Amino acid sequence: MAISARPRQALAIAGAIGLALSATACGTGSSSNSGNNNADSAECAPYEKYQGHDGKTVTIYSSIRDLEADRLAESWKQFEDCTGITINHEGSGEFEAQLPVRVDGGNAPDLAFIPQPGLLARFAERDQLKPASADTKAMAEENYPADWLKYSTVNGTFYGAPLGSNVKSFVWYSPKMFQEKGWTVPTTWDEMIKLSDTIADSGTKPWCAGIESGEATGWPATDWIEDVMLRTQTPEVYDQWTTHQIPFNDPRVAEALDRAGTILKNDKYVNGGFGGVRSIATTAFQEAGVPITQGKCALHRQASFYANQWPENTKVAEDGDVFAFYFPAIDPAKGKPVLGGGEFVTAFNDRPEVQAVQTYLASGEHANSRAKIGDWVSANNKVDLANVANPIDKLSVEILQDDSSVFRFDGSDLMPAAVGAGTFWKGMVEWINGRDTATVLQGIESSWK
How many C-alpha atoms does 442 have within 13 Å on its Cβ side? Predict the structure, then answer.
């Protein structure tokens, strides 16, 4: 599931300072661009190829709001100043529901940041999206792995590059606890299970988990299954599963669910700090890892964006209160499977200035501009790690840039909404609450029409 993390107050202060410094250095705000007066300056040299559209406006619609939206505006401000293009971005909590309404009603934005490849395909198949320009396609192919670009390619046509990303294949832990107990970070699945047994034998439940999320309850468990599916099967089988080329109750899917169950449905392992196995279904995902900071559990599988869920003043670093390690592969010799998500920059209009903005957002210049502001991850291979200050973000970018990584998008975001955000979520709740694997998978399979 695509989740937009909300940074804490300290980050808000940092963002506000950044915005103030940007305003001082560049002059005008993004919503009141006064033209490309500095177009011939040295600072504008990287934007020369985007010039020639002075006075034009490009609208963007997305689910990105609040501080994150302010940071986006800061990230493209120099582009606006150097090109004379004004970017008007609107973020909405109802983005997924309202974007089809706007598009179908003839009120589409110029660009939209779409986090669900299935929704992107819906617009493409109805000829509502504009194919990316040759410049955007070339920029995307230069800066992003093919594993990413296939999710914005429909029937052979490429529609836009990724923007932000997140890595879901992480296990959170306490470096201090590990040092005190003499535990080492596992690098294989078998090592992780051996560590879990060691922790359990010491009297501590090794794992804590929570899948309660209001109307979206169940989604964290789908991430578990997707991550394990990538480790028990080939990437090709994963693709067949998410596109229903194999049924949801295929034995290979059952194998992944049962392997996840060796942890999630193991009373010896869970649920540290909360209760038994069934407490997972009623524990809010935001709170699920907190017992690590209290010494009540040691391990919590959750995405990079969970860095923003720890209690105030928790130091997230390799030598801090909490950090994360890569959720290990079962057979590392077969590569490094990585589950993640992100959004794609898609166009509903193809005016030259719209194409210019879409191309720029696929560039290394924009990726590094946004990275310098902080708390952001991108799969863009031009991102300089020196520009990524947040330790977990740096680790995420390193994983995404690792040539051995085999990336696959969040499976539930690839499936039809009635399944991926419906019966799959609900089925995982039933499974945690005791329903057997075969019955749960058959129920999800029956819903896929």
Answer: 5
User: Which residue is it, tokens 């309850």?
Assistant: 217
DSSP assigned state of 419: I
Check which CATH number belongs to the domain holding 247 and give it: 3.40.190.10
- Statement to judge: residues 326 and 428 lie in one domain: yes
Percent of the chain with pLDDT over 70: 91
Q: How far apart are CA 148 and CA 167, in angstroms?
A: 13
pLDDT tens figures, 329-347: 999 888 899 999 999 999 9
Are residue 310 and residue 433 in the same domain, yes or no? yes
User: Could you tell me where the DSSP H helices lie in 112-218?
Assistant: 117-125, 134-143, 146-149, 175-181, 189-201
Q: Round to whole Å and give the CA distance between 383 and 395.
A: 13
Instruction: Identify whether 107 is preceded by a cis peptide bond (ω within 30 of 0).
Output: no
Paired tokens of 421: 């955000």
User: 336: phi > 0 → left, psi -120 to 50 → alpha, else beta; which?
Assistant: beta
Sort strands 323-326 and 336-347 into parallel, antiparallel or unpaired: unpaired
Whole-prediction pTM: 0.87
Task: Determine the Cα–Cα distance for residues 362 and 133; give it in Å rounded to an integer.
Answer: 12
Does residue 299 sit in the same domain as residue 314?
Answer: yes
- Let me know if residue 3 belongs to a domain: no
Examine the pLDDT at 296 and tell me if it is beyond 50: yes
| Mean pLDDT, all residues of the chain | 91
Same domain, 294 and 374: no
Q: Whole domain around residue 264: which residue ranges?
A: 170-338+407-447
Is the domain of 34 the same as that of 89? yes
CB 431 within 8 A of CB 221: yes
Is a pLDDT exceeding 70 seen at residue 21?
no
Q: What is the pLDDT of residues 185-220, one digit of tens each?
A: 999 999 999 999 999 999 999 999 999 999 999 999
Q: State the Cα–Cα distance between residues 232 and 380, nearest whole angstrom.
A: 28
Count of beta carbons in the 10 Å neighbourhood of residue 17? 10
Domain count, the chain: 2
